[in-house]
User: What shape does this take?
Amino acid sequence: MNASGDALVLGIETSCDETGIALVRGTTLLSDAVATSVEEHVRFGGVVPEVASRAHLEALVPTLRRCCAEAGVGLGDVDAVAVTAGPGLVGALLVGVAGAEGLALALDRPLYGVNHLAAHVAADRLAHGELPEPAIALLVSGGHTSLLRVDDLACGVTPLGATLDDAAGEAFDKVARLLGLPFPGGPAIDALARRGDPNAIGFPRGLTSAQDRERYAYDFSFSGLKTAVVRWLASQGTPEAYPDVAASFQEAVVDVLTDKAVRACRDSGIDTLVIGGGVAANSRLRAAAEERCGAAGVRLRVPPPALCTDNGAMVAALGSLLVERGIPASPPGLAADSGLPVDIIVR
Ligand code: KG4
Ligand code: ZN
Assistant: This one.
């Protein structure tokens, strides 16, 4: 603890292909070290779980050393350890959880096994300070797309809706592949779309018909959109049209995400929207969310792009909130849970 009573929290993230380790005190990020194995997955067009696990094993200790050196602190200064316990790839999660358990035991400090999705939301604390509660959270990553009501980010998160099929990031990755773009596809489509016309092709907006809105008000579906892109490319797609395809596809995803997120705010009378997860780095999503929130009188909070994709900072940010709010640490024998539900914040 420092003079102001803020705990120094070490955060460890290994749920997918990034080994992220960070140190946070209160809402201040002291250091954020990330090692990625993304290059090793490119030729497969997606993350290969075994390759990711091995890369975490090799990167964990060097990344931890780099993190401590950057912050100028020793491990003995750490007050609590937080680690992603799920959801994610089980082999990848196990590396982080086992490493964090060993550290917590050796240092005799509390260990928090935290939810990766809640951590994406908590990342915003590091950029904009405490999140106003209640808030609506739009979580858009490679594996998940959800709308959440956040009454208390430490212990009160309620799912409002989620994708029925592909996650938003998954749709970006799949469509990028169709366009011959590298993995991960989100940043590549974001860049290509800048040269295209978002209104060139009227791609479908999933679950937005009057009937679907009654039944699936806050749910999403992107597989029909993906099929529409496949069909369009098969019938008339020449490479010259790819920028328009990228821009129109991106517009369809962003339109539905922002429309449903702002509706969730309006319907529940909540005036803060926070967006987290890798897709929150998308430039068009950020601009459209700002426009729609501005028009609806909703305060928008989106972390800077570097804090949207996976990192240890978000895990440390959530860990630090849990310590501040007096949430009990995980019991001994913490296990990873690849399917950890979004409303279980500490395991
Ligand atoms: O949160 P994240 O780093 O990992 C998961 O928890 O899944 O999200 C990764 C996803 C990938 O699907 C990637 O294509 C997407 O985020 N992504 C983007 C952008 N940057 C990353 N999608 C759209 N636009 C971007 N600029
Ligand atoms: Zn993530």
Remarks:
- The chain has two domains: 4-123+311-324, 132-303.
- The beta strands are 8-13, 18-25, 28-36, 80-86, 111-115, 135-140, 145-152, 156-162, 272-276, 299-301.
- The chain has a mean pLDDT of 97.
- The pocket of KG4 (ligand 1) is lined by residues 16, 141-143, 169, 172-173, 184-187, 190, 277-279, 281-282, 309-310 (CB under 6 Å).
